[in-house]
Amino acid sequence: MSGEEDPTQQQQPEQEKKPDEPPSAASDAPQQESGSSNPAIEPPAAAAEPPAAAAEPPAAAAEPPAAAAAPAAEEKPLSFRALVLTGHGGYDKVKLQVKTMAKPKLKAGEVLVRVKACGLNFAELLGRQGLYELLPSPPVTMGMEGSGVIEAVGEDVNDRKVGDRVIALARSGMWQEVVVVNADRTFLMPEEMSFEEGAALTINYMTAYMMLFEMANLRPGKSVLIHMAAGGVGIAATQLCQTVQDVTVFGTASASKHETITQGGVTHPIDYRTKDYVEEIRKISPKGVDIVLDPLGGSDTQKGYSLLKPLGMIIVFGAANCVTGQRKNLLAMAKTWYNQLSLNTMKLMQSNKAVSGFHLGYITDEQLFGRTMSTLLELYKQGKIKPRIDSSYHFEEVTEAMKRMHERQNIGKVILLPEPKKEEEKPKSNAEAGENVEKNDAAISEKKEEEVKAEKD
């Protein structure tokens, strides 16, 4: 880790040297996730690099003298904070910058959104290492999902208005204070939903829902193995399993997270670090399971396939085993590739099993996106699903946020907040507090000795 910034050190915004051109409209193609913990998840449509949003709107032009003709008012450029991937590598490659650009002229069908919260997904960890093929080359603003308030609408936008609280999706570009997106890539938030929940809902829950119901056709009485059950997709999949009667959920997670995931609906938590999860599942269910959700890849895909019951299905939606350090690990990639599942059609036919792959970023069915989001928002209103927020970090703390997810410390969704962090006195650690107590005691003792000496004199 030499040469990389201290994970606990907060970034100071950099002033971008070259002004940006007005952002173009977001592309229609969707994109991937996972973050919760999932490399293959990705949101739809690429978000246009947002126009700059200043903390306050530009000041009005001064009035001209009464006798003179009024000159055309010139709008001041907008400035906004953004997290920019400046190159592939460690945490230090994601920089907090202040961008400046002319006020954007919205095209037909576009809206301008003031972003209040953004989601961090496993895809961003892959993108930072250069392992996410759908992310444009650096420098690029990352981020595929967020929530905020509409500040302007373009022509032909009839179902959105200024002031609407919305969830927004994009291929990239959401990690900034303002963003321009197509109106059809925004979804109205329920009144009771927080901005953090809005930013946590889309990628993780759309991925889990499509895998369980569109691909695996989850029905009552089935059993499901969910890897990384404490991550964003894992918690989403567990909650969605609870919407179907009599579904047994096996979930892998470190022992410290078992109580939480059990309360969330996991029937049988398994510590993958100390136990062989294949053996543990066989003890409880000798025939195996009906569905395996695999974000790991490599040898774990082989294990998952071996656990399937006849007519069972494994869905591979990531390759988290490739990510072992801050930077790209060629050995881990080679090991994952070497150990991947290899089958011929004859063997597959004889086994009566199904192998599927899922990548949200390569789905282009707009009706499917709209239908899925409508279902998820309705389930939220009914209280059947609710995003679990693990932690929220301001843009200045993006290194700590990525480190938390990279080291798999999170239970639920990690959120990024564009709003600048307020200046606060840094809390002292227990060690620092102890040192100060010792110094104070020493000073008091020294002062008493001086007073005693003075009395004697």
Would you mind describing this structure in some detail?
- The protein has about 450 residues and is α/β, with parallel strands linked by helices.
- The protein is about 30% helix and about 20% strand.
- The protein is built from eleven helices and 17 strands.
- The chain has helices spanning about 120-130, 195-215, 230-240, 260-265, 275-285, 300-305, 330-340, 345-350, 365-380, 400-405, 430-455; strands at about 15, 80-85, 95-100, 110-120, 140, 145-155, 165-170, 180, 185-190, 225, 250, 270, 290-295, 310-315, 355, 390-395, 415.
- Strands 4, 6, 7, 8, 9, 16 and 17 form a seven-stranded mixed β-sheet that branches. A six-stranded parallel β-sheet has the order 12-11-10-13-14-15, with helices on both faces. It has a four-stranded mixed β-sheet with strand order 1-3-2-5, with no helix packed on it.
- Helix 6 links the parallel strand 13 (about 290-295) and strand 14 (about 310-315).
- Helix 2 packs across helix 3 and helix 2 packs across helix 9 (about 365-380).
- The chain is globular and about 75 Å long.
- The chain starts with 13 loop residues before the first strand and ends with a helix.
- The model is unreliable at about 1-10, about 15-70, about 425-445 and about 445-455 (pLDDT under 50).
